[in-house]
Every structure is written in C-alpha cells, then in structure tokens.
Design a protein that fits this description.
The protein has 11 helices and 13 strands. By secondary structure, it is of the alpha/beta class. The strands form 3 sheets. An 8-stranded parallel beta barrel has the order 3-4-6-9-10-11-12-13, surrounded by 7 helices. The longest helix is centred in the middle third of the chain and has 20 residues. It is globular. Bound molecules: flavin mononucleotide (FMN).
Length: 368
C-alpha cells in the first residue's frame, strides 16, 4: 500500500496527500502601477492546473512582505489589499479542488532588485535613469557577488519594521484564504543572510553568536505565530547548509547541518510545525553535489534529531522515489518543483502508478 496518498494532519488541518508543490517564483506580476505584485491570469492557471492534477498542498511562490523585499520587480507581493483580493481567487479554486493553499512569505534582502531570470537575472541599478531597481538592505554591507550593488546595513529599528511586515503579511495571507504560512528563511534571502556568519558580520544582538544570528528568524516566527491561528500550521524553509563548510571553509564561516538541527529545535519550541529543508543560495559559485534527492539527508536529520516534521525537496522526480522517502520515514512529505512544471498532473499519474487515490474532477470522469 502506498503511503504517499495517506492524509497528513497538521494541527486541525488535514492535507489530503504527501505530494506537495514547492514554492516557485513566476516573475509574472506587474512591476509598476496599481497592480504591482498582484497575481494575474498566469498565476491563476499555474496554480489551478496543479490543484486539478491532485497536488495535496501548494506553496505559492516567494511573495514579498514589502516592495523592497521583492527579488525582481515582477514578484508577487502581499503588502496591500489589492494583492489579497487577487490571491483569494487562487485560494478559492484550490479549496474547491481539495488542495491546501500555502504561501511563502519572503524578503530578499541583499538579493532583491534583480531582473527576471530570462533577462539574465542580474542586479538592477537603483538609481539608473529608467531603471526598475531599488536600494537593497542586509544584515551587513556585503554584496552577494563581487561587483553587485552594496546593500545598506539594517538598523535595529528597520529590523523591527521587517518583523512587523512579516506579521502584517501573515494577517493578509489569512484574509486571502491561505491555510499554511511558510516563512522563507532559505536560499540566502534576508532571514538566511542573518543565519550565516558568511553574510552576517554584525556586532549587535543580531550578529556574532548562533543565538544572535537566529534572533531575526525567531522574532519573525513569534510575530507571525501571534497573528496566525492556533489551529493552522506554520512552516519555515531553511537552507540546511550554505555548502561553504562542506567545501572546506572554516566551520565558523558558514551555516551547517548541525546549525540547522539546533535551529529546528528552537523553531519547534516557537510554534513552527514543519521545516521545509532546502540548501544553498547564500553564496555564488559554491560547489553543490547535486543529484536525485540530494537534500533528503538534511531533512531526515532534522526529523530524527530535532523531532520536527519535515518536507524534503530537491530533485524528487519519480513516484517510486517519492514513495520511498516517505515510507522510510525520512520525511513527512515531499515537495516537487521542476517536475510539477513539466508535469502538472504528476500527482494523479503517481497515484495511478502506486495504487493511491486522488480526486479527479467530475468534468474529466470520462477520461478515468
Ligand atoms: C522557477 C523556479 C522558481 C523558484 N522559486 C522559489 C521560490 O520562490 N522560493 C523558494 O523557496 N524556492 C524557489 N525555488 C526552488 C524550489 O522551490 C525547489 O526547492 C528547487 O527547485 C528544487 O526542487 P526541484 O528539484 O523539485 O525543482 C524555485 C525553483 C524554480 C525552478
């Protein structure tokens, strides 16, 4: 019997199966004007089709808590009510299909103000004539890559403002109909920049020791948890390693799997229900041993050593592979990214292959 199609209970929420969609930026919202950051037809069909395909839970792409927090000018945002209205159309459709709607709340920090990937993805000048860019912020005034614009170091007042923005975003996410909020602490974006000593060189209470570097993450979690209903789950995405130490750098210079286990214990105590375990993204030109399921061992460690539920992600592309990860107790669920871009009905097809069940729309009943 397949376990991938067993329901999964988190607080009072039941997710219908264990095959979920990873957050994936579409860089397809208006970059200017009243509809800046507002989900449009592209977003609707993108998420609606994966729900029709039986995906148990969909994590909407990195959605910026403030205009400065966008990766690109075309990112989704969740800092105003117009954005909420458009998201409600998506969550309504997902609910009708029985798919749980989640949203990833994000601030890009020093990796903000970049172009869409298909235009090269490079940094956008903040002050160039006609440029779409804006000044970036970070824990410390260090660029992501040599030659990138220098971010401004956040003051403690500005850090408090970011924390409030995450809480406001969570409030709006609830109003938009989401049942899962995920805080984006991974891939070298703002919260991840605070976690790693490679990008955080602060000497105040937000830098230096492990306790200080995780302070922003915990403050965001507390602020979001305070507005997010008790009966709904909160996720956190982390890069379990920035792959610096694994590549021979001094262990004090990077964020490691051990740090992640320690952080996971804290997150659990602060009301996080599930850790979404990714890796990398903090520093450019890092050697990563990419291969099928290469990040699963990091998820498994957190599940075993910190006793926190986990979702595994990264090159999970095959139903039997996904089934084995969950059946072997290495993760509670799997998140699929690119495979779901290629195959929107992957989950329905996997159910057919493994003998599980997902609801098929009655309109498509003749094609069973
Ligand atoms: C087009 C694209 C956009 C992505 N955007 C995000 C994002 O918004 N937030 C995030 O945490 N990860 C993002 N990722 C990473 C994915 O969530 C996922 O972790 C990664 O693609 C590895 O999984 P996969 O091998 O199944 O694709 C993105 C990946 C892709 C391919």
């Amino acid at each position: 019997m397949s376990v991938l199609f067993d329901p999964y209970v988190l607080r009072s929420l039941t997710v219908p199966n264990r095959v979920w969609m990873a957050p994936m930026c579409q860089y397809s919202a208006d970059a200017h004007g009243p509809d800046t950051g507002v989900a449009g037809d592209w977003h609707f069909q993108h998420y609606a089709s994966r729900a029709t395909g039986g995906t148990g839970l969909i994590l909407l792409e990195a959605t910026a808590v403030s205009p400065e927090g966008r990766i690109s000018p075309a990112d989704l945002g969740i800092w105003n009510d117009r954005q909420v209205e458009a998201l409600r159309r998506i969550t309504g459709f997902l609910a009708d299909r029985g798919t749980v709607a989640g949203i990833q709340l994000a601030h890009a920090g020093r990796k903000a103000s970049t172009d869409r990937p298909w235009r090269g993805g490079g940094p956008l000048e903040a002050d160039g004539a006609g440029s779409e860019g804006w000044p970036t912020v970070a824990p410390s005034p260090l660029p992501f890559a040599d030659g990138d614009p220098l971010p401004a170091e956040l003051t403690t007042e500005q850090i408090a403002e970011v924390v409030r923005q995450f809480a406001d975003a969570a409030r709006r996410a609830l109003a938009a109909g989401f049942q899962v909020a995920e805080i984006h602490g991974a891939h070298g974006y703002l919260i991840g920049q605070f976690l790693s000593p490679h990008s955080n060189r602060r000497t105040d209470e937000y830098g230096g020791s492990f306790e200080n570097r995780i302070r922003l993450a915990l403050e965001v979690v507390d602020a979001v948890r305070a507005v997010w209903p008790e009966d709904l789950p909160l996720f956190f995405r982390v890069s379990a390693t920035d792959w610096l130490t694994e590549n021979g750098a001094d262990e004090r210079t990077g964020w490691t799997g051990d740090d992640t286990v320690r952080l996971a214990r804290e997150l659990r105590a602060h009301g996080v229900d599930l850790l979404d375990v990714s890796t990398g993204g903090l520093a450019p030109d890092v050697d990563i041993p990419v291969g099928p399921g290469y990040q699963v061992p990091f998820a498994e460690r957190v599940r075993t050593e910190a006793g926190l539920a986990v979702a595994a992600v990264g090159l999970i592309t095959d139903p039997v592979q996904a089934e084995k990860i969950v059946a072997d107790g290495r993760a509670d669920a799997v998140l699929l990214g690119r495979e779901l871009l290629r195959t929107p009905y992957f989950v329905r097809d996997a159910a057919r292959e493994l003998g599980g069940e997902v609801p098929v729309p009655q309109q498509y009943g003749r094609a069973l």
